[in-house]
Amino acid sequence: MASTFSDLGIELMATGENAGTWGTKTNTNLQIVEKAIAGYVEKSIAGGAQTTTLSITDGDTTESTSVARHAVIKLTGTITGNQIVTVPDSIEKVYIVVNGTSGSFTVQFKTASGTGITFGASDKGTRLLFSDGTNIVDTATGGVGSYDLNGETLILDADQDTTITADTDDQIDIAIAGADDFRFTANTFTALSGSSVVIPDGGLTLGSTAVTSTAAELNILDGVTSTAAELNILDGVTSTAAELNILDGVTSTAAELNLLDGITAGTVSASLAVIVDSNKDISGFRNLSITGDLTVSGDDITMGTNTAGNLLIADGTNFNSVAVGSLSEISTVANDDVFLAVDTSGGGLKKIARSTVVAGLATSGAISNVVEDTSPQLGGSLDVNGEDIVSVSNGNITLTPNGTGVVRIDGSNGIDMQSGAISIKNSGAQSYVRFYCESSNAHYAQLQAPAHADFSGNITLTLPAVTDTVAGIAATQTLTNKTLTSPKINENVAVTATATEINLLDGVTATTAELNILDGVTSTAAELNILDGVTSTAAELNILDGVTSTAAELNILDGVTATASELNLLDGDTSVGSSITIADSDGVVVNDGGTMKTVPASDFKTLVGASAGGFSIANLDIDGGTDIGEAIVDADLFIVDNGAGGTNRKVAASRLTTYINANANFASVGKAIAMAIVFG
Description:
By secondary structure, the protein is α+β, with helices and mostly antiparallel strands.
């Protein structure tokens, strides 16, 4: 019969099986048991939202493939999403699970198909759990990181009547001796009915200020109904106790005393007592009712609406100041209507009947009201007799002539307009003003508004503040002492030159053709200013006449400090200076493929093969030399390589004779042949 395996992966061997390997398998089983009851493993669940499956491999003690077998499992890694970790459904064992992850996300630990527990996003604690073969169950026996009572009561004493309960969201109730005494809610501590808070003297601080008053001192405020603003009246009071004790025995109420608060002698204030000033005057009364008679000892009754010319009229309740123009109008005058008139013969103000007025007129046919004449006409000139023609209620005074008639205002001294503004409007043509000459009005100068299409908004033309003549566009006039800002002369180009710059042309005798030479010049002002201060004559400047060099070619001279003598050395100069000893570092000017360069004299050694003090034999051209033309004598010189060491030295022909004589008997035919070749 073959072996089977338990839920933890322990191999259950059949009788007689695994002969020779039983000990090894037993050791493996014991290690599996050890992992299940005391094993510790760390498992990373780093990453986004995911489900991580913890498995068990039968008969295998490899930690990574049997994480779910271990007693203590620490979940690690940085998580960026909510995590689910599962163990096999059939497991029945105890787990200690540590949430060692980082990141504010939940971690759920459960069986593959059942339920489990969840670590909150900020819960990085440890849970003691067990698997019942279906679900993961929390033992609720004090997690290291946090402990969730889940709304249950925490009992604190032996007789179980002192408790802490949080069965209402965001509220903690503390009960002592079986009754709720204190309650905590968000930012608030409350002593419930029947409970009190005892704070020792000096033990209470409000904000950052310590309360030093005793309970007895604070009890003085017991029953005070004053507002904070009213109590603040005492802030800064410097009165002594004796001064304050003046109020001792006063029976006035606060409301009665407040009648004096803020009063000013001689002035009436709302809801306050009234005291006359030192002159026994008082002002400010409103709607004063008098049950008896009002006697005025003075001559005047002064009213706030005491408008000059108004009448004081009773309306049945009050006397009101009323303007005559505000009275109701009588549309038709009846014979029994009356007027008010002053009897100049004595007697003061009296009434007069209409009939009496009509009878007193020059003719009884006179109109009773000017308004009755709907087409009044003047039989002669209207003499205003020093008065004005005015309108009321902001009304206009309209003078409208008939047909082609005009409104003519005449006078020997002209017209005086007092308002300071004249508006000339029209009926569809541009408005204008004509100013005539002094000779029988024979000519006029017309000042006219622009056409509507030329306007971009209202404009103001301000005249000069001195006696002057207005300049015109078409008139030929001379402008004197005028400032022109960006003027345009004969073309649409603004003149930006200053007067100082334009004055540079003052006295210029150049012709147009000569000035046109500058036409197209692209030199900047700075570049032209180079000529400022030049003293060259025309003949000297004419040297440049016909020069075809470009600016780039002429700029080659920019920065040249060579003298004329130094430059003339390049111009075929045949003069020879004093002799010098040429050194390797001396410079020589050469034409390097069209570019003039200065090179060291040592480069010529390289060119002729004479570097390092030597001269290559290969560079000697003796075939083209001039024959000596005479017999060799002892004084003639030869060049030899001394000891074949690279040092060339001269040798007199007499030394050759000595050498040949010393070797008259040659040791070999080859040497004799060689000497014959050298010496002929």
